Amino acid sequence: MDPAMIFFLLLLLLPLYLLLSHKRPKGLPPGSLGLPIVGQSLSFLRAMRENTAEQWLQNRIDKYGPIWKMSLFGKPTVFLCGQAANKFIYTCDGTKLASQKPLSVRRICGDKNILELSGHEHKRVRGALVSFLKPEALRQYVGEMDERVRKHLEMLWHGKQKVSAMPLMKILTFNIMSSLIMGIEEGAKRDTLVGLFQQLIKGSLSVPINFPFTRFSRSLQASRKIRMILADLIRERRAAQKEQTAFPQQDLITTLLNLRNEDSSAALSDEEIVDNAITIMIAGHDTISVLLTTLIRHLANDQAVYAGIAQEQEEVAKSKASGELLTWDDLARMKYTWRVALECLRMFPPVFNSFRKVLEDLEYKGYLIPKGWQVTWAASMTHMDESLFPDPTKFDPNHFDTKIPPYSFVAFGGGARICPGYEFARLETLITIHHLVNRFTWKLRCPDISFSRDPMPTFKDGLEIEIVPKLSLKVN
């Protein structure tokens, strides 16, 4: 947005801000709310882009302690840090603390998605989504994912000397997600959706001022177009059901429509299906592609970890007949690979911070958190706690050798709020890494490359790598 326009808005809102500042309740955490509406949003987003957000938070923790107030994305906000804070957030009574993303996310993803719901509504929607994402249901998709990963590598990796890993991982995960969530195969519609989702994600965490040419405005436009496409898909699936030409669980949308037919009390409306399809697409497409890219980066720099994964994956490959697809049991043998993936998530969580809305005045550690405020926390601030993860700055898959304390690792959430797509992410990650390490070795074109958050991690030049095919190993 034009800086002059921001300054003009601040001048208009300054009298209201000064009036309200004298009416703040006592007992609030330390810290500053800053300027009206904007608060610390621009400073925080700049730190995200510069990959200094952890230090941005740590500076304030050093100054105020693990509990402090600020203003983010138009809302007064309290930051909480630590394992006890995570437990408080994930187990707090749903009548007191409710899921709520910033206004920009809610406007773009909709109010009926699982991240915004609490109590009975959250349980109902979660139950509907789990009917598709639970392990027993996902078993049937292992072979299909395997085929899609093989096809992706053959088309976009084989015969190349260098590739940009992040864009290719985004293509792979989007293709898998669009097929299994929305039932959209390759073609013009999928190509359109790729661009729309990228535009939607860029403005999902932004100052929610809907002026033309702002990121937020462009994301809203993309959201509207995606919703029109999904509404058409729902009509198509409903017609296919009437004609009995649709498989019961061919994709998430069909599964949710079947649930409506079988159990009206658990059924989701069209609006709920659209909101949750968008949310799962964002979560599954972007977060898994980030995890795979950070894995590729780390394996290029850590030969010991690469060798451990390669040995495990070669043993799986050698147990398969030529061309035989992976199975659920094969994935269960990839324990070390998954520990490495979890360690990547510990050190580089794709989603930096999350939010809850305060429904009534709360007291935490002697401080008042007023009704209407929001609470935020950052996974990495707990993941780098030395009392929970010894030598936390060292990449060590052995951190996950034994059971970790509850609410200390929250890359997938915690308690009843743990991500229902956990198993989906595990399947996609393990299948992709299996084929990558069995088919290629690679090195980074720029070994010291880091990432920025915009709001998800992005790598300079898309993380360019030089790849060499493994010709001597039988590829299953």
TrEMBL record:
Its main location: membrane. Heme binds at C419. It is a single-pass membrane protein. GO terms for molecular function: heme binding; iron ion binding; monooxygenase activity; oxidoreductase activity, acting on paired donors, with incorporation or reduction of molecular oxygen. It is found in: Membrane. One of its GO terms (biological process) is sterol metabolic process. Belongs to the cytochrome P450 family. This is Cytochrome P450 716B1. The lineage of its organism: Eukaryota, Viridiplantae, Streptophyta, Embryophyta, Tracheophyta.
